[in-house]
Amino acid sequence: MSFGVREFRVPGQVYLSLAGLGAAAKRGLGDPALAELVMVRASQLNHCAFCLDMHLAAAREGGESEERLGLLAAWQEAGSVFSERERAALAFTEAVTVLTEGFVPDDVYEGAAAHFTEAQLAHLIAAITVINSWNRLMVTRRTAPGETQWHS
């Protein structure tokens, strides 16, 4: 079995649709730094090197600290490094990304709903959904960090 780059390219309309959904979700969430934490965490869970590389760079450009980025994989044990709102969003990200029980647990949903308006929560769900879609496309294709020839 070959582990090289898969030959398919993401079709232009799919690329544009996912990019548009991602931009709208981030705008509606209203917190670019939190959106990048969500993107990085989902990409960690999905083992997507391409998306990790991209969103770590965006988080750094947005002023995120190396300490917080380094501790993101262990956010639950990081104490007060992440705010309660961020912790709720990260728990929600994990529950939506890893649907091991077939649904998002009520307590995780309620925890997120306590920190976000109804509209913000809908945008958070959309942001998590779109990064999971990107992760699945890039992991399936085995897209390497920094690769530029992956969509048409």
Helix content: 55-70%
Number of helices: 7
Number of strands: 0
- Largest β-sheet summary: none
**What's the gyration radius in Å?**
15 Å
Q: Average pLDDT value? A: 94
Task: Give the low-confidence spans.
Answer: none
Report on the structure:
With about 150 residues, the chain is mainly α. About 65% of the residues lie in helices and about 0% in strands. It has 7 helices and no strands. The radius of gyration is 15 Å and the shape is globular. The mean pLDDT is about 95.
Features:
mainly alpha; 152 residues
Short précis:
This protein has 152 residues and is mostly helical.
SSE blueprint:
Blueprint lengths: L11 H18 L2 H14 L3 H13 L4 H6 L12 H14 L8 H8 L4 H24 L11
Helix pairs in contact: 1-7, 2-3, 2-5, 2-7, 5-6, 5-7
